[in-house]
Amino acid sequence: MLLPSFEYERPDTIEEAVLLLSTNRNARVLAGGQTLLNALKLRIVRPDVLVDVSRIPELHAIERTADGSLAIGAATTYDEIAGSQVVRDMHPVVASMTSRIVDRQVRARGTIGGNVCLADPTSNFPPLLVALGARLRVRAAQAREVDAEAFFFAPYMTAVREGELLETVVLPPLRADEGLGYESLQVGTDSWALARACAVVRCNGTISEARVALGCGPVPVRQPSVEQALIGCEPTAEAIGAAAALAGDGFDPPADVHASAEFRVQMAKAMARRAVLAAVQGRS
Amino acid sequence: MSTQAPIRTWAPPAPVEKSVGQSIPRKEDGRLLKGQGMFADDVWMHRMGYVHFVRSPHAHAAILDVDVSKALQVDGVHATLTGEEVRRLTDRYPQIAPEPGGRLKDYCLAVGKVRFAGEPVAAVMAETRELARDAAGLVDVEYAPLPVVTDATEAATDGAPILHTEIGSNVGWNGLYDFGDVDWALEHSDHVVRIPHLHFHRFSSTPLECNAAVVNWDAGTGVIRIESNNQMPQFAALFIAPALGVRTDQLQFNSQDIGGAFGLKLTNYTNITALALLSRKANRPAKWTEYRSEHLVGSCHGNERTFRDIEVPVMADGQILGFKVKVYDDVGAYMRYEPLGGVIFSQVLPGCYRFQHLQVDYHTVLTNKTPIGPNRGYSRLQHLWLVERIVDIAATQLGLDPVAVRRRNYVKADEFPYETPNGCLYDSGDYEASLDRALELIDYEGWRERQRAAAGSGKRIGIGIGSTLDSGTNNFGQARLINKNLPYSGNGEAAICKLDLQGEISVALGSVPQGQGHETTTAQVVADALGVTPDEVWVQAGADSARNSYTAFSGTYASQFAVTGIGAALGAARQVREDIVAVAACVLECAPEEVLVVGGIASVGGDEERALTFAEIANLVHANVGALPPDVADAVTLNRRFVYRPPFGVPDWRTKSGHLTLTYASQIHVCVVEIDDETGVTTVLDYAIVDECGTPINPQIIEGQVHGAAAHGIAAVLQETLEYDEAGQLLNGTFWDYHVLTCPDTPMFKTDNLPRPSPFTPTGSKGMGEGGGGPLHAVCSALQDALGPTVVVTDSHNPIERVWRLLHAPSPADRGGATVESR
Amino acid sequence: MGDSAHPITVTVNGERHERVVMGRQLLVHFLRETLGLRGTHIGCDSGNCGACTVICDGKAIKSCMQLAVQADGREVETVEGLAGPADPPTRLQAAFTRHHGVQCGYCTPGFLMSATALLQERPSLSREEIRRGLKGNVCRCTGYVNIVLAVEDAAQGGERP
């Protein structure tokens, strides 16, 4: 319940933030703090410096980019995302999913960047980003873009290196014949997830493209077996069910007090089925 | 005094409407809603130091060395405390168990050995909380790990690692309850249902406020002032005083508001003892506030109970003759309040049913896990779950209608007061009428239709019944059934009622409320006794043992306040009324029977000329006493202490029987669940509870208790559990991993109350706060109903994966969960 | 590794406070111990129970999941700001009493602040929206039923709850 000691800094700009992160060896980014503060209470992490980026305006921007993507600043809160008309127009499923993260108090402060950089197996955004093929803009002295599939290395380990700051999450738009489905198996309403799947499906009479990612594993993983089985199918319940039954590629979920690995694998298939179905049904 | 009847402008005091039975708003709310309550962590004492406990990471280990030197070097650290000091400075706590279990050595810090992960090993006191925490991290403890045992049935066998070598085994107590002739019944019944194994899981009510205390051992007076949230201070005193070697009245306990307790704040006497020693050592008050993760691993849990080799004789017409069972109760690493669980369950030995042939072979077993405390429903909850599973499984296996089976076997309304085979007296009730009402509330037939319609849809519906009792007002003589040498029997609660200097009505209770509304219900009862409104009755907030009066049984626990606390307050109020009448009769020169006490005025039949206000009466007794005749002045005090004593004798330890509890509130639960076939997710669709707790004092308060108990039950059966690995590590020791039930997942319970006044209590009311764990019984029954007879619900905890496995991958134990032998 | 000290200015219940806080001090400890506002409670150590909920710049937040220094320049409302000891209760507080939504009172301040923020943002709510909206606050005494009824009752009036 009590934090270890650290130095606290609150830079006003991204440049200042990056300078602080790169000149202090054991520095951490503080955005919403809705998971970092717990880690500090439990003394799982002991940074020397906390760099509070939560009030840097550029990190809260939500905009439609020139190429039609949705760019969301890393320190944008869940409330800001869920309440944004731009997000609702471009990615209603993302707005809806974000409006159901944990509870109102967390949504007032928790940020997309915090969720993505925490990269806990149960984090909400990582499988979504992989399924959508999102890009993540990381700032050091320069900015670089990392594809979502190359962003998550292991639980709590991402492509953001020491001295760097996640700046923007860029979601590609959905095409007119594409739908996005996001399904979770949770212990209670809006609560801890045991299994999670996200699917982007393009369908015009038959399915022509599919991207399916599983969450609740060490890292989010694409499901090529499922995707390939879907292509060319009519979007019937049977076909989708048969394809989803193949889910499990590269999926090695943990066994812990909440569920066994075997159950998580079975539930991944169920969530994959539901996510694909939702994606197909949700096309505009 | 004129007896003419002139025109009057003064009207005789109108009768005040009776308050008992009305849902008046609570007196406690005013301060609590405004954040002006005083909880233990809100207490501040000048110069106080903050305490942090160093806790064992090992579940079982010898302590080789405790080095506090680095901690003591830190500027701002006041003092440290180690197990070695505790061993020298205190005596071990008294034990309830007889030999050999009673040889167990228990202290406020681990001495020589740790026996559960999270056990406190040392303590550091410092200027700030942060400093205490940081300095505690500098304490070096050297351990030599020992083999760990976490399963009670394993721990009870020869060859298991032994926690307390003084005992020689891990069986802290065992006893056989044997009534009727169950072997005869098993020989002669039409069917025998055999259930090899049932398991009631470990969980906790987790009050939102954790344990906390500020303790000051005054160097001048020797008074140990304890500002804490302990819920039964006199029980704590009976452990702390002998340990510290102090007088009972050196221990002054005070609490005002307690943030829930549910039985889990009885055993914090261990922490209080350590704080007292630190306070004396550092000559300053010692403050400690438990973290949630500390609470989950370091305070206490509810009993985990394994039932083996259950055999149930059933007749063709559905009459169940009784049952036979072997019980292994896992009480964790120390017996504190245990092994009382080994007799307390027998208050409800046959549950709601007329079983005559009962055999329970009970073992209290120690394991390397957090010690048990009397968690809401203590020990009866586990047993009532067993009984309901037996009835439910027997019905399922034999294809009997679950409603009909209960009707067939319930104790009947005209059989009350009903004596059970082990001599307990169920005072009143009507389980069948309660069941009928619950089925009506839920539209049982409608749900049966919807259940049929849902077949094959991918979601299946189950309807379950849970019948449960809340036995209240213990006869503490039942402790002798555990240990015949214990000098305890009966029960009693004290209260003081007075008219203060200006005639104000004031009451001080012996109870220690934690949200049950004692100030309010007491005011209602006292107001009726004195002919005033509850607004005119001041009930002291909280519990102060220096100000209030108490007995050895004082406190708030075990569903008894509506009997014992109210009985004491009522008795004291009636004595004050007698004093009022005596003064009035004397001054107004009338017979006592002519005195009318209404609206704060004592008068002769409402006559304005012959009346005295309470203020005038108080003045005469307190400040104007020369104006009273000496015999009246000697007889009245307007300050009355009353001890309510239920009519208990001493139970018979030889036969393990007797009048163990005074009242038996009941709750009949009916619930409807929907299971998602694909995932095993269980959703409660509808839920009805009919409770019976005698004469209601405040119906809204009763209903609130019913809701709260039901929420705890739903939480436990569907998502709350405390799980350990084989190394004795608690795997889900924070609220991140211990999934507390939240608002959107708690049903909007449909409730009704069917009162059947108790013939044994002062107001006809019964204690009812614990509830009896109805949802554990009802939801398991509903799952069983949804799953059918080919698998058996054998565990009280049925989270998503467990239900999924029962549906899709039942183990041989699930499938063989019950067998039937028919003649 | 040291502690940093930071001067902050924070308005609490309409009153401006200028203080120096340690970087690692949590907002809930600042409120309770530095400012002596003990109505906000601590029920867990992982941000899961909501007992510490206050309103910060119009939004309900968990004050144990926020550093005191992060409240610099912000407006915070605690339960003491709803109604003073001598004031009449707010409509929401009165509804809690009417429906017996308080038992031990430990979760109550957190619920009041959550519900106040909820009703300010969405004065008209369905029962399901209320139930979901109160997800972040744990109660172990009431079973939530009466709390939901109280918030529903308070929502009828439309103005500040």
Describe this structure in words.
The complex is a heterotrimer of chains A (284), B (823) and C (161). Chain A is of the alpha+beta class and 284 residues long. Chain A has 3 domains: 7-52, 2-Layer Sandwich (Uridine Diphospho-n-acetylenolpyruvylglucosamine Reductase, domain 2); 60-171, 2-Layer Sandwich (Uridine Diphospho-n-acetylenolpyruvylglucosamine Reductase, domain 3), CATH 3.30.465; 178-282, CO dehydrogenase flavoprotein, C-terminal domain (Enolase-like, domain 1, 2-Layer Sandwich). Chain A contains 11 helices and 14 strands. Chain A has helices spanning 14-23, 36-41, 78-83, 85-90, 92-98, 104-109, 112-118, 125-132, 224-230, 237-244, 261-281, and strands spanning 7-9, 27-30, 49-52, 62-64, 70-73, 135-139, 143-147, 152-154, 157-158, 165-171, 178-186, 193-204, 206-215, 221-222. Chain B has 3 domains: 43-146 and 207-261 and 265-298, Aldehyde Oxidoreductase, domain 3; 174-204 and 300-477 and 651-822, Aldehyde oxidase/xanthine dehydrogenase, molybdopterin binding domain (Aldehyde Oxidoreductase, domain 4, 2-Layer Sandwich), CATH 3.30.365; 492-644, 2-Layer Sandwich (Aldehyde Oxidoreductase, domain 4), CATH 3.30.365. Chain B has 23 helices and 30 strands. Chain B has an 8-stranded mixed sheet with strand order 3-5-1-12-9-10-11-22. In chain B, strands 7-15-14-13-8-30 form a 6-stranded mixed sheet. In chain B, strands 18-27-28-29 form a 4-stranded mixed sheet, with helices on both faces. Chain C has a 5-stranded mixed sheet with strand order 2-1-5-3-4, with helices on one face. Chain C has 2 domains: 5-80, Beta-grasp domain (Ubiquitin-like (UB roll)), CATH 3.10.20.30; 91-156, DNA polymerase, domain 1 (Orthogonal Bundle), CATH 1.10.150.120. Chain C is built from 5 helices and 5 strands, in the order ββαβββαααα. The relative contact order of chain C is 0.16. In chain C, helix 2 (91-98) packs across helix 5. Chains in contact: A-B, A-C, B-C.
